[in-house]
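Weekly sync, protein design subgroup
Attendees: M.S., D.O., the rotation student, P.L. (late)

Item 1: inverse folding check
M.S. brought a backbone from last month's batch and wanted to see whether the design step gives back something sensible before we order anything. D.O. pointed out we never logged the input encoding, so this time it goes straight into the notes. Structure tokens as presented (243 positions):
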């Protein structure tokens, strides 16, 4: 069986299992029959910040396409020019695209005008490539304050698994960190601007597919878990325990 078929089969099973079970109709004769435990396959969202970068992001998209695995990309506005095809490819291949500011500026303590020059300007640049969309926000460094959330205009997406892939760019260590800490509903943070992170991401996908995980975008993860996205609210994982 190819990776494509394996991944598709896992997620199909996951989708079926995620449907609500019909209410049991009890009779006295049924009372001794144990209830079948409803299986809930682990859902995992891979997210990538700081791109796009021509060579590394392209290689990542190739690897994800081969495995039929969707991801979420939070893009830096100043990196979009000249890389429009890469951004269009993300959307065309089922990935979620979001905003990571215009030039990777922390969103805390900004005036409304400066905030809009980071978030609004990047959303406009993405809309020029992809058409209108929500383009959810991931703030650089995960830093938010009341104003940053109030003005977000979309859910604010942080993460629950961070191998700090930028630190040493050590593929083996990054894969180990992610695989050790990932759990059902995790949002994994990686950066698609490093060749080591691309390599690590694809190894993580292969390992977690073997374990029966289903990869989804952040938006799909919320939908599958029945969480209504709220603008300005910070999310780290689903179910949103231990926020
Ligand atoms: Ni960043």
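Designed sequence read out in the meeting:
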């Amino acid at each position: 069986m190819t990776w494509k078929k394996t991944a598709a089969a896992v997620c199909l099973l996951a989708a079926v299992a995620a449907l609500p079970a019909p209410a049991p109709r009890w009779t006295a004769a049924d009372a001794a029959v144990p209830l079948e435990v409803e299986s809930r396959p682990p859902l995992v969202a891979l997210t990538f910040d700081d791109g796009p970068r021509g060579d590394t992001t392209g290689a990542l998209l190739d690897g994800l396409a081969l495995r039929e695995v969707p991801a979420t990309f939070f893009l830096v506005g100043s990196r979009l020019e000249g890389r429009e095809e890469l951004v269009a490819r993300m959307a065309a291949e089922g990935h979620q695209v979001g905003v990571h500011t215009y030039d990777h500026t922390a969103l805390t303590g900004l005036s409304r005008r400066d905030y809009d020059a980071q978030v609004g300007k990047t959303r406009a640049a993405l809309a020029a490539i992809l058409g209108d969309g929500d383009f959810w926000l991931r703030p650089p460094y995960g830093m938010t304050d009341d104003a940053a959330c109030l003005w977000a205009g979309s859910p604010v997406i942080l993460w629950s698994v961070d191998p700090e892939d930028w630190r040493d760019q050590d593929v083996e260590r990054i894969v180990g960190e992610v695989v050790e800490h990932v759990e059902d509903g995790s949002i994994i943070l990686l950066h698609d601007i490093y060749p080591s992170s691309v390599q690590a991401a694809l190894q993580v996908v292969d390992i977690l597919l073997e374990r029966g995980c289903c990869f989804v975008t952040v938006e799909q993860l919320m939908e599958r878990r029945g969480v209504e996205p709220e603008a300005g609210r910070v999310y780290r994982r689903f179910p949103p325990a231990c926020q």
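Discussion: The two ends are 39 Å apart (CA to CA). Residues 112-130 form the longest helix (19 residues).
Action: P.L. to compare against the previous round before Friday.
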